[in-house]
Amino acid sequence: MSEVTLTSNPNPPFHGGRLHHAAQQFDIPIDSWIDLSTGINPHSYPLPLVPQDVWQKLPDADDNLLSLAAGYYGSTHLLAVVGSQAAIEALPKLRPHSRVGILSPAYAEYAYQWKRQGHDVQELSIDELDAKIARLDVVVVIRPNNPTTELLSQTHLKRWLDLLQKKSGWLVLDEAFIDAMPNSAELSMITPAPLHGLIVLRSVGKFFGLAGIRLGFVWAESTLLSALAAQLTTWSVSSVARWAGAVALQDDNWHSLMRQRLAKDSQQLCTLLAKYDFEFVSTPLFCTVQLSTVQRQAAFCAYQYFAEHGILIRNFEHLQAFRLGLPKNDMAWRQLEKALSELKT
């Protein structure tokens, strides 16, 4: 696989988080904020105290992380990476100039990273992808989609994959938010044996609420995993991240109980939004709300409005929508309801 030349590119995408920036911008103490901007599980996996020897050891690729990950994901064909973001940045370097179709709207890093490596990128709807699939080399799909929550069917994806396989193309699937869904194992496109041209990215940050350890996995054919590994730095996944991931991935009881809790919390958020007549779509980890249901002046900025109430959200101006993650506790729920009620008055 040959690399492509880095080209001039637009400004990097804006992301959720950045709580310190918001605190300074709106002059509200950071302890007074609730962060609903990321869609990360607010109920993080309860990691035990990190053993002292974990801090002292270099990362060991022969530890039990991949075997435990294989049990969780249902396949041994995995590569541990520094969050799925590392794979998003590295994959465009593994192909010559390609025609890339991204199911849009989507996580903005995909278009940004493929464009900055010189590829021809088009952000397309499902119907447009169907019409243009014969002329594309790579198709990128997020499922469930961030921010639209759409979950494209396996039947549809397999049809696209079949066409891409005939020309050594790729179907890249981002399943970062799929773990929280009740039947995630059945919904995932991961199978015990890899499929030619199919690449699936998974994240430990979202469902496990462990974004800070920066751990994710790539499922693909061995040759592609080897090429991807060669793009990454030595010891890229830290010893602490490997230890934490191994602990969290094997706790089946927590997985089951957390999916039930997230389903309950998600329903609570949906009920709250419906109470004030918002139109929205949802996944177990976030809701995306249509601004068309907000009775405000045309220049209304959802980001500013919620920030002034000490709530950090993810705004999507081009979609006329904003995304809300799950509040962490009763105080956060009350703070959100107050802001929503005042927004509709």
Please write out the topology.
Layout: H1 19-26, E1 34-35, H2 52-56, H3 65-73, E2 78-81, H4 83-90, E3 99-103, H5 109-116, E4 120-124, H6 126-132, E5 138-142, H7 154-165, E6 170-174, H8 184-187, E7 198-203, H9 205-208, E8 216-219, H10 222-231, H11 239-249, H12 252-275, E9 280-282, E10 286-290, H13 302-308, E11 311-312, E12 314-316, E13 321-325, H14 330-343
Parallel strand pairs: 1-11, 3-4, 3-5, 5-6, 6-7
Antiparallel strand pairs: 2-8, 7-8, 9-10, 10-13, 12-13
Report on this structure.
- There is one protein chain.
- This protein is of the alpha/beta class and 345 residues long.
- The chain folds into 2 domains: 19-43 and 253-343, Aspartate Aminotransferase, domain 1 (Alpha-Beta Complex); 52-250, Aspartate Aminotransferase, domain 2, CATH 3.40.640.10.
- The chain contains 14 helices and 13 strands.
- The chain has helices at residues 19-26, 52-56, 65-73, 83-90, 109-116, 126-132, 154-165, 184-187, 205-208, 222-231, 239-249, 252-275, 302-308, 330-343; strands spanning 34-35, 78-81, 99-103, 120-124, 138-142, 170-174, 198-203, 216-219, 280-282, 286-290, 311-312, 314-316, 321-325.
- A 7-stranded mixed sheet has the order 2-8-7-6-5-3-4, with helices on both faces. It has a 4-stranded antiparallel sheet with strand order 9-10-13-12, with helices on one face.
- β3, α5 and β4 form a beta-alpha-beta unit.
- The model is unreliable at 1-8 (pLDDT under 50).
